[in-house]
Amino acid sequence: MTDPGTADALFDAALVEEAAKKSALVWIAVPGHAARPVWHVWHDGAVLVLQQRTGGGVEQHLPGLAEAAAVEVTVRSKDKGGRLVAWAADVAVLAPGATAWDAAVAALHGERLNAHDGDAQPDRWARDCVIVRIGPARAIAHGAGLPAGSQAAAPVPSPAKTRGAAPRNYSFGKRLRGR
Question: I need a labelling partner for 66 at 20 to 30 A (CA). Which of 18, 46, 126, 130 fits?
Fold first, then answer.
């Protein structure tokens, strides 16, 4: 018979792994900053996050992530959109050229969509980016253990602007009249 504590730990580990594998985004809360969604890859028992060394580049940037010792990770359900599981995890920055770096680049490169530089992308990452390994998971919360509030935060300031009103589409009415 399995010890109930061991069974709970196995369930928690499986829940974290499956949720992170199936989700395209995870929400990462760096101490002192609001939680932000980031693109990630689940690899070798941890979340891998690629980020630009400084803001303003092609890749995502999460302030303070590379300097943090630990973060809180939240995964939302793909079908319902609600929080599925949250956990605290340690942060480690992978060094370019190391075995762990090469394995992480292979995993991230295979999953990266819309790469504008194709096979030269790993070289750019070594030059301009940081790969952060977040894991293993500890202090896992799910179900009733998750916070009850919305945890909504104000949008992150951005220099982006709307270009104005959308142009009028006069062809829609013609299609309806032609039936």
Answer: 18
Element (H, E) at 130: strand 129-142
pLDDT (tens digit, 9 = 90+) per residue, 50-59? 999 887 788 8
| Residue 140 · residue 12 · CB < 8 Å | yes
Task: Report DSSP letters for 63-107, one per residue.
Answer: TTTTT-SEEEEEEE-TTT-SEEEEEEEEEEEEPTTSHHHHHHHHH
Structural domains of the chain, count: 1
SS3 content of the chain, % helix, strand, coil (to 5): 30, 30, 40
CATH number where 8 lies? 2.30.110.10
What is the pTM (predicted TM-score) of this model? 0.78
